[in-house]
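The freezer alarm interrupted the setup, so I double-checked each line after restarting. Inputs confirmed:
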Amino acid sequence: MNSKVGALVKREVRSYYWSPLAYVLMGVFLFLMGSIFTKFIILYQQYNFQQSMGSGPSVTLDKLANYFYQNMAFVLCFIAPFVTMRLYAEEKRQSTMELLLTAPISSTSIVLSKYISAMLLIFSVVALTMLYVFFLVLWGNPDLQVILSTYIGLLLMLSTYMAVGALISAFTSSQAIAAIFTFLTVLLLWLFQSFGQGMTATTGPIEWGPLMIYLSPLSHFTSFSNGLVQVKDVVYFVSFTAVALFLTHQVVESHRWK
Amino acid sequence: MIQVDGITKKYGDRIAVNDVTFTVNRGEILGFLGQNGAGKTTTMKILTGYMPATAGKAKIAGFDVFESPLEVKSRIGYLPETPPVYPELLVDEYLSFIAELRGVPKADREKKKANAVELCNLGDVRYRLIGNLSKGYRQRVGLAQAILHEPEVLVLDEPTVGLDPKQVSEIRKLIKSMAGSRTIIYSTHILTEVAATCDRILVIEKGKLVAQEALNEFGATGEVVKTEIVMNKSSDKAMAAVQKVPGVKNVRRVEDGAHRFIVETEAREDLLAEVARAVVESGAGLVRMAPVALALEEYYLNLISGRISA
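Predicted 3D structure, all chains:
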């Protein structure tokens, strides 16, 4: 089974890097992050200057790095749907899904291979930002442990994005629809954090405010970007991914009992 | 090898396949005939485990399609209606992917790929992008995909659509060459194709199986072969002579003034030789003897228009 998952992943990655989409995404992502990084350097210089004059807030490099990675996590909400949109939608459109579903492989292998491919692809994009870490080290003295935990947080957060995106792609044969709905879902989950903050409504024992904050990946990612690797946050991301992958499996299997 | 027992498939209220039962023996080539939308593709999708039947059972090599899908799928090669190819891959990459997907052992992969490339005549395009190939080539890449792992059972959904006449005849030859070693189900709506390649035909109409016939060595159904005989002189004496040949069932004149008649005989080649001798000996001047090629078509058209019932 493993070699078949390998074959599927290889094919997926090969197809992705053949398309201009991969390079456009990388370009857009690097452009956005580059702009934010530049702004962050200018801010840092300003604050440092103000502080040396004896006024202004005290801002550490680590605080700004935190701000930078929060921005990156948000930008990735826009990038993720473009990575996952084609996973199933394209297979259905060009009727290669029929090939996969009549080949001697299990639906589990298909679902796993799609998820692994998506993770490899999105991480190849995020890996480009190691460049900024290099600059930070070269030029300041950042807390590398915090940066490491931030990247672990990013990996886990992207894992949920990829799983949700794959699930949505499995419902349609249109890449555009898959991308739009994935984006909406990811954005909504992200915004749950701020929705939940002012909310006091309760239904029986359910307190909507804290529940929404709990459901938002943002609240869990924040712990990681603050340097905290907590089991409860890991559990959140892993179970979120697992549920989405399970549902994707059901959708892929559904053709068998429709 | 293939047993289909009372398969029914409903899409909502619409019945696509209605209680279809048939078997295909090992090494047999079965032609699956029917108009577009008659239920051929649906039946094939059920056989390959792509979709389940609403009712009924299908077994391939003794394995139930629904209960042991992986066993069945590893024994089948399937060419769907649209060749399932990735336009962004090279033909060679695609075939490697298929070999891995089908679990062909690493040591055999190159050999089997080379074999499929040769059989499907893909040597010229092996290192080209599938997306840049013509429809005919893509169809052949699809076929190469189906035969690469040398499956026991081949399910081909209209394999010759979109090919030019030369390619069509090559594909037919290829299919014919696999007779005996593989069991093949092959759907089409082109009758001459069936006559040229198949051992047996199934005719499906509006989801129902309307006929199952073995094809004789003349590519026609049943026990009777029709041959048209043309002479350059009056045909009366010749007709009388032919009528006396044992095995001749019926002789009838073609009513268009020419010296022609049609003879119906049992399906034996030696019999035709005797008919020819009888004509020549009667002194009628034999010009031409030709099988009535439309026999199958006539049968089929009669069948689907409901004039005969099987």
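Quick read of the result. Chain A touches chain B at residues 3-4, 6-8, 10-11, 14-15, 18-19, 94-96, 98-106, 255-258 (CB under 8 Å).
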